[in-house]
Amino acid sequence: MTINRQSAGGQSPSTAQNDQGGINQPFQSGQVEIRLQREEPVIEKQIVSAGSVVVQKHSQTQQRNISSDVRRDDISIVKSGDSQNINVSSDLQSSSEQGGAGMGAAADISAQSSGGASSDQITDIKNLSADNASQCDGRSVKLSRVQVQQSYGDRLIALKGAEKPVYVQLSQPQHLQAGQTITVTGTVKSLSQASMPSDLDQQGTQALQGQPLYIDAKSIETN
User: Fold this and answer.
1) What is the structure's pLDDT at 22?
2) Cys-Cys with 83: which of 52, 99, 111, 212 at CB 3.0–4.6 Å?
3) Overall average pLDDT of the 155-178 stretch
4) 3-state helix/strand/coil string of 43-102
5) Which domains does the chain have, with CATH numbers?
6) Closest Cα to residue 148, out of 111, 179, 193, 183?
7) What percent helix, strand, coil does the chain show, rounded to 5?
8) 147 forms bridges with which residues in the sheet?
9) pLDDT tens, 71-85?
10) Ranges 33-47, 60-74, 79-93, 116-130: which has the least confidence
11) 8 vs 179, more confident
12) Which residues of 41-64 are buried (b: 16+ CB within 10 A; e: fewer)?
């Protein structure tokens, strides 16, 4: 009698020859196969629902204060000569008046008879320009808190104007520095070679040449 262990799925060589009878037949060869079994653990993974993620977007309104400088152009109308022959349209007059009232820039609207200067005092340095030099000649001026742009010796200074500097002849020698804030009181004078101030030094004379007007200062106050 022979007993062999056979792997699962295999077949012993004697099986094909002796599979006709069992071992219970007397005087005959036979074979009995005992099938073996075992238990094996089986592990599985399954996908199941674990909830969900919801993404939402919410809009939010915020109020912010933004400050900025807003600029505008104002119109200054100066009538000279025979003002009765000068007609200004109503929309231009209203625009000029609104600009002076709304923006704080007073429009310089004045009438000037031929041969005589207006007596209105000039208080805005913007009104001193080459375009209206003849209208400003002889008028009194008081400019408050204007800035010195450059000093030419001790008798001439240049003020920082809207577009170009405005020159001021000092009545007395005075040392002023660039950047100083001053108040100027005096008279506007148109400039020509015949009317060039004689008490200026060479530096002041060269700086004043070619300028349409200057201020003959009576007093200078530093602020």
Assistant:
1) 66
2) 111
3) 89
4) CCCCCCCCCCCCCCCCCCCCCCCCCCCCCCCCCCCCEECCHHHCCCCHHHHHHHHHHHHH
5) 74-114 (no CATH), 117-222 (2.40.50.140)
6) 179
7) 15, 20, 60
8) 181
9) 877 777 766 655 555
10) 79-93
11) 179
12) eeeeeeeeeeeeeeeeeeeeeeee
Say if residue 197 is exposed, middle or buried (CB neighbours under 10 Å; 0-12, 13-18, 19+).
middle
- Bridge partners, residue 220, by sequence: 184
Tell me, letter by letter, the H, E, C secondary structure of 167-202. Answer: EEECCCCCCCCCCCEEEEEEEEEECCCCCCCCCCCH
Q: What is the mean pLDDT of residues 45-70?
A: 87
Please state the φ and ψ torsions of residue 168, each to the nearest 5 degrees.
Answer: -130, 125
> What is the per-residue pLDDT for 218?
92
d(CA 181, CA 187) in angstroms, rounded, equals: 19
**Neighbour count for residue 123 (Cβ, 10 Å):** 13
Q: Would you state the pLDDT for residue 116?
A: 41
pTM more than 0.85 = no
Are 163 and 145 within 8 A, CB to CB? no
